[in-house]
Amino acid sequence: MNINVPEVKVPRIVIVGCGFGGMELAQQLRNAEVQIVLLDKHNYHTFQPLLYQIATAGLEADSIAYPIRKIFKGQKNFYFRMGEVTQILAGENKLITNIGELKYDHLVIATGSTTNFFGNTDFESQAMPMKSVTEALNLRSLILQNFERALLTTDVHEREALMTFVVVGGGPTGVELAGAICELKKHVLPNDYPELDFRKMRVILVENGPDLLASMCPENRTKAKEYLEELGAEVWLNTGLAKYNGMLAETKNGKQLRTLNLVWAAGVKGVIIDGLGAECVNQRGRIIIDEYCKVKGYQNISAIGDVATMSCEKYPNGHPQVAPVAIQQAQLWAHNYLRGIKQQAAVKFDYFDKGSMSTVGRNKAVVEVGKIRFGGFLGWFTWMALHLMLLVGYRNKIVVFINWVWNYLNYDRNIRLIIRPFSRKET
Amino acid sequence: MNINVPEVKVPRIVIVGCGFGGMELAQQLRNAEVQIVLLDKHNYHTFQPLLYQIATAGLEADSIAYPIRKIFKGQKNFYFRMGEVTQILAGENKLITNIGELKYDHLVIATGSTTNFFGNTDFESQAMPMKSVTEALNLRSLILQNFERALLTTDVHEREALMTFVVVGGGPTGVELAGAICELKKHVLPNDYPELDFRKMRVILVENGPDLLASMCPENRTKAKEYLEELGAEVWLNTGLAKYNGMLAETKNGKQLRTLNLVWAAGVKGVIIDGLGAECVNQRGRIIIDEYCKVKGYQNISAIGDVATMSCEKYPNGHPQVAPVAIQQAQLWAHNYLRGIKQQAAVKFDYFDKGSMSTVGRNKAVVEVGKIRFGGFLGWFTWMALHLMLLVGYRNKIVVFINWVWNYLNYDRNIRLIIRPFSRKET
Question: How far apart are CA A218 and CA A209, in angstroms?
Fold first, then answer.
């Protein structure tokens, strides 16, 4: 059965995924003579850079999730359908989804990325991922549940495992999450659990490579490590994780750790939909696109953002998987589409890198914009201001701002709620 | 195994449940020479009067749930353990819980109430209850999911069922929920679903008795009905629900309704723990207590709040199941406990009724305080101010206030998020 969408004479552009890329593209095309059908398995856009604050009880989900229908209120050529695409039938210009089939004239895949366990089923079944709102809420529940359990046990080893946090992966997510857990340890949890000895709580960040934040400049990499250590984290560089059975983690160089809290932030892969040729997807699970965002071998199928990889002179292995790339690719796609209608030649993608930043804790962040580098309070303040600007919706900006001011002044994280207890069986 | 709580020489008072009653009691005893152990299956206190705003996307869960450990931060004689009590072994002064056993010197049951389906398993399996945060979140998801489904179907009957909302029970919860759904219909959903015909959306409040808000004065009962009808609800008085199979509802007087959204707010019963004698529990599932809140036949077991019922001259069938009764009974219990230590005689419970109020929609509420009655904007404003005052925590007050101002000015409900889709199988 077909998905119930009006049949119109203008071309139908189907966008799969309402992350930064999909959202931007649908907005860019608001005045175009097209029918836009956006599909997403959720009815909200997720502001992913702040997921770690959901996980660490600093923000509630509604602050960083925004209803898709509200974003596009009043846009006449826009149709949203909540559903999950299971297959592309490129020969018939058709998608198969869990809510029916859908024809397209142009298809833009903007499904983003998900956690990559690199095929290790032990990690997959035992480690906590943090790439969606639900996963972040599960992690929050687990952290709080484990402290409740730590109070109940009289077994020293079990308590040690319950109070040991291992974050695998020293990219921005791993660094920010490890920093936020350290702040919980320093300012919040000792108030909640005066019966526990917090000298026994450990936060360990494990990174395969020789540096944290490998995409930043050397001085910021070092600074991030210093910040984390000041906050009480242990940073283990050049350390890969070999095994984890849900209780005992073992690194490749033979160190063992008892932990019931292991977060996997060590890699992502594209969210691939079945049906594209195998030659379109690289070994990192990303769709190979040309400099116009078109998928290799297809005229009317494109991909943008985290799910896609484009090789160019400056970025031979593809651009970084960050929001600005997705947004700029969406803008390029819309621009080229409109040029195409006017019989103008398409322009190639040219990524404008506005810089990058990462926050570790209060008054601790690293920022680089071109040759300019700074950190400390100014970096942290810049990080906050920018994230507030980028958040969708004024109410969300206000609520997040209040939470941040509140947490800053009170050294607090208010949202220490176990609304849905996490249980490994259920997921 | 015993729950891990320090063994001390002072009497141990175990409180089960951190609703309004249990929370107040633990606070009242903060300076007493006792050890307080509070058990609750959640790690948060729920401000139940605003659950309907969670369900109708007006507020997020964190605004009305408050971490128990934070409430009691710094209280030296207080111990919280997250767990569910499964049995009372009164002969041994002991509780059995899912986290171990616990001895008590005094036991205070403050477990509150839950939805009463009066033994009808069809209603129980098919109707939506709304007595906990999770249930309210499930209801929110269901409402939004059903509108997404309404867009997808081409079957007129199915769409009708998806867009028909039946609320059973004309007490405060039913009235407030029906009013809030009407406001979604009027101001919010048509923006989200311009493709649907909202003249087809129905909100029906079904009440067994001859009046809404039976506990209020006749003029306010009438006014509440008028308010609801102005907002577009149908109010069916003197109408009991006979059957509901998940799709078709039938009233006792033979009316049929296709609906996939049926909310049961037609009754509550006490949350009873096994182990008390059958003679202690009445046919409405409430524990019979004397005028000192002691459970019939036990010297060191008391019950307070919704779970308890006390017969007295003014309230021969027990007090209303509202927060002020629970709070005043908690205060009485603490007062009598302290008097007992000083060998003073216990005093009897004397409920001071501060009045009652109920809100239907913007600028629409009914208030009565003794002989004073008012409604309209003033009633609505009073309702808001009082609820803000009663909410636990300043951050919550601020966030709720901002949401209310925002929603009022923008005719909006921002939190239209399906974070965890509701599926009947899972629950």
Answer: 13
Q: Please judge whether B65 and A419 are an interchain contact, meaning their C-beta atoms are less than 8 angstroms apart.
A: yes
Please state, in angstroms and rounded to a whole number, the distance separating the CA atoms of residues A302 and A296: 9
The confidence score (pLDDT) of residue B68 equals 97
Mean pLDDT for the stretch of residues B396-425:
90
> Which pairs from B393-401 meet CB under 8 Å and 24+ separation?
B393/A414, B393/B66, B393/B70, B395/A402, B395/A403, B395/A406, B395/A414, B396/A414, B396/B62, B396/B63, B396/B64, B396/B66, B398/A402, B398/A406, B399/A399, B399/A402, B399/A403, B399/B62, B399/B63, B400/B50, B400/B59, B400/B63, B400/B64
Q: How many residues would you count in chain B?
A: 427
The one-letter code for the residue type at B272 is: I
Record the tokens describing residue A74, joined without a space: 């009043």
Residues of chain A numbered 304-323 and touching chain B (CB < 8 Å):
none
The predicted-structure confidence for A165-212, as pLDDT tens digits, reads as follows 999 999 999 999 999 999 999 999 999 999 999 999 999 999 999 999
Residue that has been written with the tokens 């920018």 in this structure: A386
* Residue among B188, B191, B176 at smallest CA distance from B136: B176
What is the identity of the amino acid at A311? S
Per-residue pLDDT, averaged over B189-211, amounts to: 97
The residue of chain A nearest to residue B57, with distances taken between CA atoms, is: A62
Nearest residue of chain B to residue A141 (CA atoms): B43
Predicted confidence (pLDDT) per residue in A19-29, tens digit? 999 999 999 99
- Strand pairing partners for A36? A13, A78
In B38-77, the residues whose Cβ lies within 8 Å of chain A are 42-44, 60-63, 65, 67, 69-70, 73-74
Q: Which residues of B are catalytic?
A: 176
Give me the domains of chain A, ranges plus CATH numbers.
12-41+83-115+268-341 (3.50.50.60), 121-266+362-410 (3.50.50.100)
- Cα A116 from chain centroid? 12
**Which residue type, as a one-letter code, is found at position B45?**
H
Predicted confidence at residue B425, as pLDDT, reads: 59
Phi, psi of A137 (to 5 degrees): -65, -40
Query: What is the tens place of the pLDDT at every residue in A177-190?
Result: 999 999 999 999 99
* C-alpha dihedral sign at A279, A280, A286, A291: positive
pLDDT at residue B127, rounded to an integer:
97
- Looking at the complex, does the CB of residue B82 fall below 8 Å from at least one CB of chain A? yes
Kindly report, residue by residue over A295-322, the tens digit of the pLDDT: 989 999 999 999 999 999 999 999 999 9
Query: What's the CA gap between B246 and B262, in Å, rounded?
Result: 8
**Three-state secondary-structure class, residue A140:** helix
Residue B214 pLDDT: 93
3 state DSSP class of B421: coil
φ, ψ dihedrals at B25, nearest 5°: -60, -45
Structure tokens at A77: 């050529």
